[in-house]
Amino acid sequence: MTTNLSPNTQAILLLTAPLISGRGSATTDLLSSGEYKRLARCLHDIKREPAELLISLSAEVLEACRSVAGADRLRGLLARGFQLSQALERWQTRAIWVVSRADDAYPHRLRDRLRSDAPPILYGCGDPGLLDSGGLAIVGSRNIDEALAEYTMEIGGSVANAGRTVISGGAKGIDQSAMRGALEAGGRACGVLADSLERQAMSRDHRNLLMEGRLTLVSPYDPSAGFNVGNAMQRNKLIYALADASLVVSSDVNKGGTWAGAIEQLNKFRFVPVYVRSVGTRSPGLTELLKKGALPWPELESSSSLIDVLDGAKRHGGRDSPSLFDGSEPDTPLPSLDEGEISEKAIPQSVSELGTASFGPGFSENPASPSAIVCAPGDPAEALFATVKQLIQQVLAMPMKEIDIASALGVSPNQAKAWLARLSDEGVIVRTTKPVRYKIPESRLI
Fold first, then answer.
1. Same domain, yes or no, for 207 and 133?
2. Domain range spanning residue 381?
3. φ, ψ for residue 135 (rounded to 5)?
4. pLDDT of residue 260
5. Is 118 domain-assigned?
6. Quick check: is 337 in a domain?
7. Are residues 365 and 258 in the same domain?
8. For the stretch 396-432, what's the b/e string if a residue is b when 16 or more beta carbons lie within 10 angstroms of its beta carbon?
9. 363, 386, 383, 384: which is closest to 373 by C-alpha?
10. 371 assigned to some structural domain
11. Which of 120, 298, 316, 368 matches a 20 to 30 Å C-alpha distance to 273?
12. How many whole angstroms separate alpha carbon 63 and alpha carbon 408?
């Protein structure tokens, strides 16, 4: 797919991708996920496509979308044709393909379930068809003992014997054990990576499996991108969206990517059932997930039993598919939120929409004073900030840097800084030094 990019995909890459090639530095003025989402919605509203930014109509289209990003900024990004050609050559030599949300080849499960929150660009290596095959998402902690690794490999092998796919994050620990168990049993695995796709695709351990079509590696981040906590947190929803059901083998409580991803699935997305390991020593994290709606993993006597579990889970299904590249919202209502949470109908669908949205009269942010957020009595700004507070606390499942929080939320660093300053002032979060991190105070952990 890399050598024959559609015009839409070329435009989306130019607008959102760092186009890292070799040791060159990445572009820093890229459209954030939230900004691209709003641009896609603008294009959809005026019945245009991203590709039309590259042709003679670009001036007219840029003018129509100037509220999302300045015309000069968009032109600068779209002028990176040479960088794009260099990046494409590099990806091609490493058998890395690229697909955008505007392409028919984009995974239907991601498009149908995540809609406008689906990553605009996906990079991958291996058979892209594997991404729509469904299967069991297996996730858990990085630091595990031998017994837990063996258990996870057995589950992966059982999935392979049932003719289904293991979907995981490719990280050390549970993720790699699950994928290894499936592959060693002659099955298939899909790894949704948060970083280093290029390095993983070039690994000797992976090359034959990739060429055989039994392993697919995919990432929404540049193939050369290094590890970033925010990226790791954001990719969790992709793992669940590609699956029919999920199994959490181990998890901490109120911290870590595994916990954050499971809670996000239970409370927000609800694409698939969330099961937790039910044999051996149960960690406190698994116990808490059961209290929040997760299910105990059933004792399966045969491959047919596992197939029954996965096929039954398919009844959860995905939402109706939107336009290929637009920013439209679901036509059907999203699942209701837990009691005490703000209705999703009353707020933007994702945090990234809050970053540069116009909140109307009564709301202002003084860039010179990040904590100076002023709300007039009776306007909706306080309700919006209450939602921001809730979402930032979810993101801070582990201590994070300001830049990583901004990345996780899909907003600018300045906007994240303003929110974090206010939450720090209110005592909702605390700022540590050496190193500088933000975290939830111990007194607030449940």
1. yes
2. 344-444
3. 130, -160
4. 94
5. no
6. no
7. no
8. bbbbbebebbbbbbbbbeebbbbbbbbbeeeebbbee
9. 363
10. yes
11. 120
12. 30
Q: What's residue 41's pLDDT? A: 92
* Cα-based distances in Å from 321 to 117, 300, 317, 329, 394: 12, 34, 12, 10, 27
Query: How many CB atoms within 10 Å of residue 188?
Result: 26
Among candidates 168, 148, 159, 169, which has minimal Cα distance to 250?
Answer: 148
**Is residue 404 pLDDT above 80, yes or no?**
no
In this structure, are 368 and 419 located in the same domain?
yes
- Domain boundary (74, 93, 112) is at 93
In this structure, are 403 and 256 located in the same domain?
no
| φ, ψ for residue 398, nearest 5 deg | -145, 155
Beta bridge partners of 189: 166, 215
Give the span between the Cα atoms of 108 and 340, in whole angstroms: 33
CB atoms within 10 A of CB 327: 22
> pLDDT tens-digit profile of 167-222?
999 999 999 999 999 999 999 999 999 999 999 999 999 999 999 999 999 999 99
Asked if 37 and 116 touch (Cβ cutoff 8 Å), the reply is: yes
**Is residue 108 in some structural domain?**
no
> Are residues 209 and 132 located together in one domain of the fold?
yes
| Count: domains in the chain | 3
Q: What digits encode the pLDDT tens for the residues 128-175?
A: 999 999 999 999 999 999 999 999 999 999 999 999 999 999 999 999
Nearest to 43 by CA among 27, 67, 19: 67
Last residue of a domain, one of 316, 334, 357: 316
Q: What is the DSSP letter of 308?
A: H
